[in-house]
């Protein structure tokens, strides 16, 4: 069993628990404290030494998988906006529609994962990454705007499934021990691979590589990640899964994911597009910025993960949203492109704080509900993500003001700050409870 996963307890279990189980007046049995009263934290799952080599093999494969996926997607992401602008002449409204339709599969993630419940997480990861690879490799051959939209929606199904599976596999392999640190490590590995991908992209463009060649390289890297996913052992699976999970007790997690989808889509869609369209930033500069973003994220992710484990989600997410207010206000008011470059990098470094949403869910989720609950969180995230790009693009085109979407982002981040205040304070771990006893 995993530490940090609370379950309702009406009495002490017969099996000895290191941290102890004591009655709390009026609250049932659990740890005495405002965050955990009435709940009993499960102890960590101590494996036998015979399973350690297998676990190390899984971590190695998963690290390589994460590296290959992030490498391929960074190559794709680093050139895509310039590709559609230079090759297809896509404007703000068309780009907003494309981004919205790309997020439709994300809206359906919970139901897609529920349909494929017969597949264990490792196999499902391999399938989803293979589908993503095929779609991305064919991007330059779409031949027009609407064929590109159809192709993008195809690979987006696998992409969004993987986004829900990655943290679930990470938490399954960590067995609940230092989940924030492990998520931070995986984020750092991904960011390091982005550095390599962007260096390759910059050199490839200088050497005259075509967009088609670069998209093929991206697809090949993601296909390699899919093959590695098939090699993971059953230990990477989270156990028997429910088809679809939607519970009121996870309401705060859903709400925070919804708001995160709003604000993330605003910045991802319009910050880079504003730099390209309004400030005429060339592809070489965008690749350089992405390179710096990856370096900042690689440095920040492990530290952020450790601090989430140490001080809890409320503290870290509150700091995250407070800094995002400054980022959005900056994009809405500042017209010095050098300052905007700095804010662009800062947002990427702050994105690593988002793993706090996963660790928060892991603390409250019921047994065998982590993967479907993460998938439902992805769906909630994309309820907004489907509407925001198209709406923001239409507002930009109608008003001629690229700043308007960022003012909307300020309001959304303000709501996130208010929601973060409702999170429990720093969690009391089983080890801490044991020492207190």
Please give a quick description of this structure.
With 437 residues, the protein is an all-alpha fold.
Description:
The chain has helices at 52-87, 92-102, 104-107, 109-115, 121-137, 145-174, 179-206, 211-230, 251-277, 283-311, 313-333, 337-350, 355-364, 370-399, 404-420, 430-436, and strands at 6-8, 22-24, 28-30, 39-41. With 437 residues, the protein is mainly alpha-helical. α7 (179-206) packs antiparallel against α13 (355-364). The strands form two sheets. The chain has a two-stranded antiparallel sheet with strand order 1-4. The protein folds into two domains: 1-46, no CATH class; 49-305 and 312-435, MFS general substrate transporter like domains (Growth Hormone, Chain: A). The protein contains 16 helices and four strands.
Distinctive features:
single chain; 437 residues; mainly alpha; Growth Hormone, Chain: A; 2 domains; two-stranded antiparallel sheet; 16 helices; 4 strands; 3% strand; disordered N terminus; disordered C terminus
List the helices and strands and how they pair.
Elements (H helix, E strand, L loop, with lengths): L5 E3 L13 E3 L3 E3 L8 E3 L10 H36 L4 H11 L1 H4 L1 H7 L5 H17 L7 H30 L4 H28 L4 H20 L20 H27 L5 H29 L1 H21 L3 H14 L4 H10 L5 H30 L4 H17 L9 H7 L1
Antiparallel strand pairs: 1-4, 2-3
Helix pairs in contact: 1-7, 1-8, 2-14, 4-14, 5-6, 5-8, 6-7, 6-14, 7-10, 7-13, 9-14, 9-15, 10-11, 10-12, 11-12, 11-13, 11-15
CATH homolog superfamily of the largest domain:
MFS general substrate transporter like domains
CATH names the topology of the largest domain as Growth Hormone, Chain: A
Number of DSSP strand runs: 4
Report the order of strands and helices. EEEEHHHHHHHHHHHHHHHH
Question: What is the tally of helical segments?
Answer: 16
The top level CATH class name of the largest domain: Mainly Alpha
Mean model confidence by pLDDT: 78
Instruction: Please compute the radius of gyration using only Cα atoms.
Output: 22 Å
Count structural domains. Answer: 2
Q: Roughly how many Å apart are the termini?
A: 21 Å
**Biggest β-sheet: strands ordered side by side in the sheet:** 1-4
Structural class: mainly alpha
Largest sheet: 2 strands, antiparallel
Strand content: under 5%
Unreliable spans are 1-50, 428-437
Q: What global shape is seen?
A: globular
What's the helical proportion of residues? Answer: over 70%
CATH architecture of the largest domain: Up-down Bundle
Quaternary structure classification = single chain
